[in-house]
Design a protein that fits this description.
With 419 residues, the chain is α/β, with parallel strands linked by helices. The protein contains 19 helices and 14 strands. The chain has 2 domains: 28-34 and 48-206 and 402-414, 3-Deoxy-D-manno-octulosonic-acid transferase, N-terminal domain (Rossmann fold); 222-399, Glycogen Phosphorylase B (Rossmann fold, 3-Layer(aba) Sandwich), CATH 3.40.50.2000.
Amino acid sequence: MTRWLYTLAIHLLLPWAVLHLVWRARRQPEYLRHWGERFGLFRAVPPAPTLPTIWLHAVSVGETRAAQPLVAALRQRYPGYRILLTHMTPTGRATSEALFGDTVERVYLPYDLPWAVRRFLAHFRPALGIVMETELWPNLVAACQESGIPLLLVNARLSEKSARRYARWPRLTRQTLVGLAAIAAQSEADAWRLRGLGASQVEVLGNLKFDVAPPAGLPDFRTLIGERPVFLCASTRAGEEALILDAWLKVGAGGTALLLIVPRHPERFDEVARLVESRGLKLQRRSEEAPVAPDTQVWLGDSLGELFAYYAVADVAFVGGSLLDYGCQNLIEPCALGVPVLIGPSTFNFAAAAREALRTGAARQVKNASELVAAARALLFDEPARRAMGEAGQRFAAQHRGATEKTLALIARHMPVPS
């Protein structure tokens, strides 16, 4: 596929994109806000428009959280620049607000329409652009080239599944990758797959997520829970909660242990609450702001920006997206906090980190929900095993830190000299 055919397809899909926003707004009304930004229409430039801009794109929650150490480092290294964050989802935008407040600007990145991305670049005039992980937008890359804006792909990861999808359009993919000023891959495997698609300017700099630190001011959930053992199922995806709840019920709902479920997507909070109640389990929600009663069996983590606090209170943590074929969410955070980690069979989103965590004993892998609950219950009542896994997790996380400084050095090589 050539870029003009891709552009034609994007224009033909515009009605579907608008309908998709309306459909998503049924559960998440925030999708109805800031529509103009998705088409390159922005409010007047905020105060101090003369400051040069560093633009960083983080599509959703995971990428925004991964950008946290990089944003902090950029603000320190380049105090004379404003930082602009772009997102594609309301949850990514809300995460940015929780993490960075008004220290950065934030808008939605326009759809990959040539006229929309040109408006975006003309409005904000970034000196340099940084795209987190694997967001390859051909027209955006081309517009940056035409405008002389270096565009870097950092913390890049590419699973075998994604590589096969990009390989269906080899010419368009190669043209897009070559248009990037530089690519910083998370691992050698990611770099190898990117090079196989035509990228040449690839360096392996590690994973920024190892450098993420807990934000200040997080609540201490032990004051709400008490001393009960806690099995946390974090960042769960559709279909996983039902499997876990059914397995939990088969073993008597965990005895004194509290099952804490934190769904990945906030629009599913009510759905998961209904799943719990339909099984006759006593439920409380974090949003109730009340102490967890002794007879409460499931606590639903229906809040944003508090995942580190949930991990901090956990005795054992399952990382969602791995029980079904979603590719696993971020297992680095619980490891860094010294929490024993359980993961399912699907790990392609964090393949390298999962392999290393399993090898070092920081994590254990299960095949299904029954094995998951059995492993969790065994660990909950085996303090030496939990301590050994927790210490292994902290060592594993510490050994892989440093990607932020390497990425800063890459950015410095491509940062234009101020005129």
